[in-house]
Amino acid sequence: MLSVQEVSRSFGGVYAVRDVSLDIADGEVRGVIGPNGAGKSTLFHLITGHLATDRGAISLRSANVDRLPPHRRAALGMSIVFQGARVFRGMTVRENVMVGAHSRTRAGFVSAALRLPRHRRDEREIARRADEALARVGLTAWADRQAGLLPLGQQRSMQVARALCAEPRLLLLDEPASGLRAGEREALAVLIEELRAAGLTIMLIEHDVAFVTRLADRITVLDLGRVIAEGTPGEIRADPLVVSAYLGEPE
Ligand SMILES: Nc1ncnc2c1ncn2[C@@H]1O[C@H](COP(=O)(O)OP(=O)(O)OP(=O)(O)O)[C@@H](O)[C@H]1O
Description:
Shape: globular
Radius of gyration: 18 Å
Domain ABC transporter: 2-249
GO molecular function: ATP binding
CATH superfamily of the largest domain: P-loop containing nucleotide triphosphate hydrolases
Number of strands: 10
Protein name: ABC transporter ATP-binding protein
Keywords: ATP-binding, Nucleotide-binding, Transport
Order of helices and strands: EEEHEEHEHHHHEHEHEEHH
Number of domains: 2
CATH topology of the largest domain: Rossmann fold
Bound molecules: adenosine-5'-triphosphate
Strand content: 15-25%
Largest sheet: 6 strands, mixed
Organism: Sphaerisporangium corydalis
């Protein structure tokens, strides 16, 4: 589904991501973890196209995408849930999700957010897709309520619904569990499990190692911009390099 080959990116001569390679199979849930500053967010933005690579290649379903802008990658099936993604607080939950259906083109996103006339004719079809996405994340009862009233856990589910509305093949989640309470985290984990069961390919960047370990088929561990380990959650837990990256070398 996604192939990242020896990708690098530096800022002011310092590598944030260095020679990183990873391949995500169809239907896989891949976790990406690493200590602060490991390069997780940089890698995420290189994959989505919000940052340019210095070197290396990125392909989605065998199509080279590393020179494409984000909306072209979205059109090929990448959907993103950003950390702290925008919630249009005065709009309804359904309208917030409908914005996702337009995210495949940049112009579409803007006109959808502004509700320009040429979009009205498509609106019924998009509302139907939004309702389907809301049902998948368990937010049907909230569809007509103001998004600003949603508790944080449900706002996160709404953002997932927005991403699903674009009918992605690959869903990219940037620290989706951050700031959530235990119950909300559990609900999000169940939602991700359901999406995996439905066959969606997912890449999950997380600080919360327990959360990733529960959900991922395989985990890639970054430290100082490089991949230091990759394997199943069991292999990663037992890897001495991973333990020392997180806990520091024993005295
Ligand atoms: N736009 C930027 N300009 C300069 N340096 C940057 C920029 N973005 C990231 N960096 C640097 O690149 C390195 C990797 O940062 P990155 O945010 O990708 O790590 P991270 O693993 O996501 O960290 P965290 O878990 O703290 O979010 C850090 O040293 C950071 O300071």
